[in-house]
């Protein structure tokens, strides 16, 4: 049933490209603090190499992933097939946060559709690639991407976005530092 892979091959890349949603999980170091699991969408995930993936991180109501990555780097991405054959793919690794004013951001940006709502790009050096059956994952039909984030972002001035990020994205719910440049 489940297996591990040495690299992200064409078959895995095609599977990833067909998915409309993926999940990101991180946790603070130690036994205290909150584990975080976030759904992501909007065609934001890219395979950059045989063991490197990245996704666009949009402005949101919290910044747990960013805070956890800054603290310990641990991250897992999970994708589930909601249509077609049942399958789950996981990419475990170490992530880094690349904010728009970092030199690396300009090199990564052409891989994505960068909009005003982007607060960073998360890059993961994958150290474990695995799949599993997904037999209990429901079959669902994709209708369309939501437009709420773009509409919300476009209603805000640049100053209002900075103010929002300062208020909501500077620290995690556990008080860990998150965005350094809002």
Q: Could you characterize the architecture of this molecule?
A:
The chain has 182 residues and is an alpha+beta fold. 23% of the residues lie in helices and 32% in strands. It has 5 helices and 8 strands; from the N terminus they run βαββββαββαβαα. The chain has helices at residues 10-18, 64-71, 103-108, 148-155, 158-168, and strands spanning 3-5, 22-26, 36-40, 45-49, 52-58, 74-80, 88-98, 118-132. Strands 1, 2, 3, 4, 5, 6, 7 and 8 form an 8-stranded antiparallel β-sheet that branches. The radius of gyration is 16 Å and the shape is globular.
How far apart are the first and last residues' alpha carbons, in Å? 44 Å
- What's the Cα radius of gyration? 16 Å
- Series of secondary-structure elements, N-terminal to C-terminal: EHEEEEHEEHEHH
Number of helices: 5
CATH class, named Mainly Beta
Number of strands: 8
Number of domains: 1
Work out the helicity level: 10-25%
CATH architecture: Roll
Rounded mean pLDDT is: 96
Largest sheet: 8 strands, antiparallel
Produce a short descriptive summary.
With 182 residues, this protein is of the alpha+beta class. 23% of the residues lie in helices and 32% in strands. The longest helix has 11 residues.
Layout of secondary structure:
Layout lengths: L2 E3 L4 H9 L3 E5 L9 E5 L4 E5 L2 E7 L5 H8 L2 E7 L7 E11 L4 H6 L9 E15 L15 H8 L2 H11 L14
Antiparallel strand pairs: 1-8, 2-3, 2-6, 4-5, 5-8, 6-7, 7-8
Provide the descriptors you would attach to this structure in a database record.
182 residues; 8 strands; 32% strand; alpha+beta; Pnp Oxidase, Chain A
């Amino acid at each position: 049933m489940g297996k591990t892979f040495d690299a992200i091959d064409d078959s895995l890349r095609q599977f990833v490209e067909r998915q409309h949603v993926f999940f990101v999980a991180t946790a603070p170091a130690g036994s205290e603090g909150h584990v975080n699991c976030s759904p992501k969408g909007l065609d934001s995930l890219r395979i950059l190499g045989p063991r490197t993936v990245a996704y666009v991180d949009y402005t949101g109501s919290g910044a747990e992933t960013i805070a956890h990555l800054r603290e310990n780097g641990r991250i897992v991405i999970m994708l589930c097939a909601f249509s077609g054959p049942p399958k789950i793919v996981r990419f475990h690794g170490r992530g880094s946060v690349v904010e728009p004013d970092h030199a690396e951001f300009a090199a990564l940006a052409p891989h994505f559709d960068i909009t005003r709502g982007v607060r960073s790009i998360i890059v993961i050096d994958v150290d474990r690639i695995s799949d599993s059956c997904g037999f209990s994952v429901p079959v669902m039909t994709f209708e369309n991407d939501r437009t709420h984030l773009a509409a919300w972002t476009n209603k805000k001035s640049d100053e209002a976005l900075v103010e929002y990020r300062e208020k909501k994205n500077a620290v995690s719910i556990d008080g860990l530092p998150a965005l350094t440049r809002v």
